[in-house]
Structure formats: structure tokens, C-alpha cells
Design brief:
Elements lengths: L8 H17 L5 H8 E9 L2 E4 H14 L2 E12 L2 E12 L2 E13 L5 E10 L5
Parallel strand pairs: 1-6
Antiparallel strand pairs: 1-2, 3-4, 4-5, 5-6
Helix pairs in contact: 1-2, 2-3
Length: 130
């Protein structure tokens, strides 16, 4: 995981989510350890109006790990101002024979060490499930 300072915002966001997902899905490390590597202890995410703190994020990550999805992120636009990043990306996920495309509008803040401290995400399905 890199830091935001002097980084290309598109590469930073792609690298952040790709590394986080790889560490979560492709290692046997405890999910809480992986979450803590990428998020500050006081992290808060608001995803489609649902507030997710660290405990809920860890709880969410455990079933993701069991399902072992394949995913990739395609960042269309991103900009940074200090510790803030705004990005528009598509998350491509293949899980249990199903393919999903999720469009995401992301607004977040990151700590100096590159960990996420706050995020607001608006999502929508870009491809109807088969």
C-alpha cells in the first residue's frame, strides 16, 4: 500500500482496493489484521446510506473471504486534494459463476500513511445479474 502524497490518484485508488482485496482474499491472515493494515481504527464508511465502522467492516470482510471472489477495479476518473480523493470506478466481480459490475462514486479521506479514514460510496449495478 502506498501513500497518497505525490501519487497519481487513479493509481492510488486502484492500488489501494486491489491490494486490500488481494490481502483479504488470497491470504490466511485474520480479517481484522488486514482491515487494520488498510484502515485507521476510527474508520467510518457510508455505503449507500449505511454507516460502517471498523467492527462492521471486519464482519463484512469475513464472508467475502469465504466466497473468494475474483475482482478487478477499473478507475475511470480520480482526483486528490490533500488527504481527500474523489473517484469514479467500476468494480468487476466474479463469484460462484456470477459476474457483477458495480459502478462506484467514491469520496474519501486517507491518513498520511495511506490508510483510509473516511469514505462515502454511492453504488449501482451496471450489469444485470445473469
Amino acid at each position: 500500500m502506498g501513500t497518497l502524497e505525490h501519487a497519481d490518484p487513479k493509481a492510488f485508488i486502484a492500488g489501494f482496493f486491489t491490494s486490500f482485496t488481494d490481502d483479504l482474499v488470497h491470504t490466511d491472515e485474520d480479517a481484522a489484521t488486514v482491515v487494520d493494515r488498510y484502515h485507521t481504527p476510527d474508520v467510518v464508511q457510508i455505503a449507500d446510506g449505511v454507516r460502517i465502522d471498523r467492527a462492521r467492516l471486519v464482519a463484512h470482510c469475513r464472508p467475502v473471504r469465504k466466497n473468494r471472489p475474483d475482482s478487478r477495479i477499473e478507475v475511470h476518473d480520480a482526483m486528490a486534494d490533500g488527504d481527500r480523493v474523489a473517484a469514479r470506478y467500476t468494480l468487476h466481480v466474479r463469484q460462484r459463476g456470477k459476474e457483477l459490475e458495480i459502478e462506484v462514486s467514491f469520496f474519501g479521506r486517507f491518513a498520511e500513511d495511506g490508510r483510509m479514514r473516511e469514505a462515502h460510496l454511492l453504488t449501482r449495478s451496471a450489469k444485470a445479474p445473469e
